[in-house]
């Protein structure tokens, strides 16, 4: 009972607020006649066939141009009451009519379902005007109707959305103090679009309201000083303005046509024509369809009725000169011609970079973000054309928006037909490459393998080969005649591409030397324009740079002459190699390791040291002298007097355990660390103590030096000259002291 009463009270309050005034006058048409200064408009209403409608019942808000407004309009157009066509008369009248009657103070309320509305958030209302079926001249679709919903995109194809029965009515904009205040706008946001109109606190499009809230029996009339014809949508404005013909040509390449039986039937009933009517919409990957009048936030999936009252889309479109210049720039490696030579997604990305998901007001031009969540890259001085349109805000600009996917290092392989496989890898979101390298303010270095390099080494990318148990990534061994597309080859390929991304650093040249972490937390080394990966260390052949591209805003790209390969060997193999290469630094440790019970002499694996994507390690190898001191200290078996290694593998359980503890405490688990000044903290080791708890070492890290501090607080220095050795998701260092786990 209480719920019923509460609901009833709420509904009564709503009804009372929006109810017709008690002291109502004549209907709208008669009210206009009686006032005496709407002679032209009443003639147009009569010609439009709306005299009877506006002389009876109904509930409207009308924005009525007075006689002075029509005289200005006729002077500008050369028309008269007699020469205005029936269709133009209908469009003027229907666009002046807003469904339902509102006082001026009610127009700024955004009407939301289940509430009394949100004050100050509305600046548009739906009118009685809609375009409906229009002729079209592409030689295929003779009749079209604009879509009334945005399309979606699912499973690699556009998912069509159209609501039969929704006429795609146009909205009329108006501007009140309440809206400007709530939206954080000022009068200049209005006058930017209407420089010849004074803002008065209640304006309708480019008109001033002379007299507001004129009461009639079927609504409210607001007298205005300009004739307002239906505003164009984005799509219509681009058609009408040849300054944007190059952009429109590109946009049209994404137009879609679907025959609609419901509209076709209604068109036949209305006209007797048997022409098929097609819904004209756009690729579902676009932020929105520019001919749709019903706003919905493209960053959400749901459609909300009345959302157009409070918001609209925005477009920032380059004029022909700017469009041609930008196209030439980003398509330089594709001949600089029309976008058809590029990846299909290039067109989508470009168009989406010009689309804003909400109203972009002039005062917010530099702070708003587009559909790709990118800030505006041009200045306000680049704006040559500002328009309030029926479904949003339009800016024509002399300089194109610089999309991040084009201006960052991501764009270099993306826009290069010779690096399609790199593009396929970087666009594969699980790698994390795209979000890292498309940030214009984050520096990166990018090593790229061209398609020719990959093909020469047995790799290919073929979408047709992808299935539930196969991948588009294929590999053919030199001894094979066919490609295998096993899922393992996707993982191998992506690991190589990830190895080429060096986040957070722009190596403008490779003339020096260094070791740098990659996006997958492995490391590569460079020295005098040569590059090493863990795989090239195994092969003994360093990679060379074939070409350099420093044109991106956030880093440098290097094309290399071979694969960014990784080792398939276990860490024991590399410790064995280091023992031979630097015997004074590694041989004693390797001897102890190779005779321990946690080492597999066949696979060269250390028990517990994995090689999957979740594994990273740092192995800290005490020099021979440090090992000798550890023996003397009783931390390892051997001659405690001389520090000599044992002559055979330990057999006593105590000695076996000493070796195990010593080795595992010298392996940092979960992080590969090099002396670059970046990672400094307390790190867990592979060793667990007697109670099963973790053991730790502390790392002090500066560029060119690194100190390891053990449980006892004793330091060991990384010997840089024999360190920074690459292994399987592991870095191996030489240290000048042993680490005490006790």
Question: Your description of this structure?
Answer:
This protein has 742 residues and is α+β, with helices and mostly antiparallel strands. It folds into four domains: 2-131 and 171-224, FAS1 domain, CATH 2.30.180.10; 143-165 and 233-405, Roll (FAS1 domain); 408-560, Roll (FAS1 domain), CATH 2.30.180; 571-735, FAS1 domain. The protein is built from 24 helices and 37 strands. The longest helix is centred in the first third of the chain and has 17 residues, at 2-18. The chain is elongated, with a radius of gyration of 36 Å.
What is the element layout, followed by pairings?
Layout (H helix, E strand, L loop, with lengths): L1 H17 L9 H8 L3 H10 L11 E6 L1 H11 L8 H11 E3 L4 H4 L16 E3 L7 E2 L7 E4 L5 E3 L2 E3 L11 E6 H7 L3 H5 L10 E3 L2 E10 L2 E6 L9 H7 L4 H8 L2 E5 L1 H11 L5 E6 L30 E6 L1 H11 L13 H10 L1 E2 L26 E7 L2 E6 L6 H4 L3 H4 L5 H7 L6 H5 L6 E6 L1 H6 L2 E3 L8 E6 L8 E3 H13 L1 E3 L9 E5 L5 E5 L2 E3 L1 H6 L3 E7 L5 E6 L10 H11 L1 H12 L4 E2 L4 E2 L10 E6 L1 H9 L20 H13 L1 E3 L12 E7 L5 E9 L2 E5 L5 E3 L7 E3 L2 E6 L7
Parallel strand pairs: 1-11, 5-13, 14-17, 18-27, 30-37
Antiparallel strand pairs: 1-2, 3-8, 4-5, 6-7, 8-9, 9-10, 10-11, 12-13, 14-15, 16-17, 18-22, 19-20, 20-21, 23-24, 24-25, 25-26, 26-27, 28-29, 30-31, 32-33, 33-34, 34-35, 36-37
